Amino acid sequence: MSSLPTTLAPSSGQASAAGGAATTLILAVASFVIVTTEFLMVGLLPALARDLSISVTTAGQLVTLFAVVVMLAGPPLTARLSHVERKRMFLAVLLLFTVSNAVAAMATDFWVLAVARIVPALALPVFWGTASETAAKLAGPARAGRAVATVYLGISAAMLFGIPLGTVVGDTLGWRGAFWALALMSALVAVLLQVCMPKTAATGRVGLRQQARILRDPAFVANVLLSVTVFTAMFAGYTYLAELMEKVAGVPPAHVGWWLMGFGAVGLVGNWLGGKWVDSKPLATTAAFCLVLAAGMAATVALAAHTVGLAIALGVWGIANTALYPVCQIRVMKAAPQAQALAGTLNVSAANGGIALGALLGGASIDAWGVQSVAVVGAGIAVVAAVAATAISRRLKSRASQAESALVFREP
């Protein structure tokens, strides 16, 4: 009889590990669905604008609206809901996305669609800020890194393929069909999570005052503002890329989604390069990819009439665009090693601030100079971001050198 517990213990441990791995995979799929809900709109703008009889610029403000809500709601909502049991929280978020995507699919005018976008925007940063942490806890210390990487794979996949998938599905089923597909996926993931995810212990509440302490460091604030500038550059052009492909490059609407799919696929190279280089020189890596981004954007307009040249230019743009996602996240987190979770949440808010501003500036440039101007405006802002990253790097090196000199001077 004494051998029975010895036999059951490993089995129980294996079952727990299997359950944690299954939950992590489901969280990765949930991350894909949730983050795709934000970025899918970009690929649907031309079709949506035609159907609702509004301009592409007006439709583009739905991207701005979503990003502004994420930016403002992220830190306070994440702090206030940090004590909620994670399974219950994730199920509530997924059901909220199911309902809001269904409402979006049935929207008859701009304002109904706007409300259907505001509601999920409130929940997105809460999920984004807690999913990786939960996966790490479920996996245990030995597998925590792999679990977090798996969840972020879902987020990266949404950033890379959410827009082109939305365009392809939109061309096949219509933009309403794309939202119905998201509603169905959200519901299915909620069912899987209910079945597979164990309940977790609630975490301690993180107060807003505690979050604010991180903002006392000028270097950290500079890094956050740099993220705003970088994402403004990225989304001044990226928000209207589908429109740019149709109107400037002359790509048939039915083919735009496949071009954007290639844009995302090539971007995987940038994701790998950015993650590889950012650890050693985060600011220099940011500056370098901003310059590559500027070159790719400008070349896309210049080579729009030549298929091969357009493909190469979009490849350069895609590599830099995708690289800057992990580069900015890791750079900001490295700027606050004592509070990396909070830093990551604030960077998500900063990124969404840049997304909103980029969509706004891109829309204004279309009204003023035509759709081809969005790439030029984005390229100009990317150069500004590269200069800012270099200036911050030099300032930090100067400060470190002064601190080192002061320390040497004080030594007896």
UniProtKB/TrEMBL annotation:
Membrane topology: Multi-pass membrane protein
Predominant cellular place of this UniProt entry's protein: membrane
Subcellular locations according to the entry: Cell membrane
Pfam families assigned to the protein according to its UniProt record, in alphabetical order: MFS_1
Domain Major facilitator superfamily (MFS) profile: 23-397
Segments traversing the membrane: 21-48, 54-77, 89-108, 114-132, 144-165, 177-197, 218-241, 256-274, 286-304, 310-328, 340-363, 369-392
Keywords: Cell membrane, Membrane, Transmembrane, Transmembrane helix
PROSITE patterns named in the record: MFS (PS50850)
SUPFAM superfamilies documented for this protein: MFS general substrate transporter (SSF103473)
PANTHER family: PURINE EFFLUX PUMP PBUE (PTHR43124)
The protein's name: MFS transporter
Organism, scientific name: Aquincola tertiaricarbonis
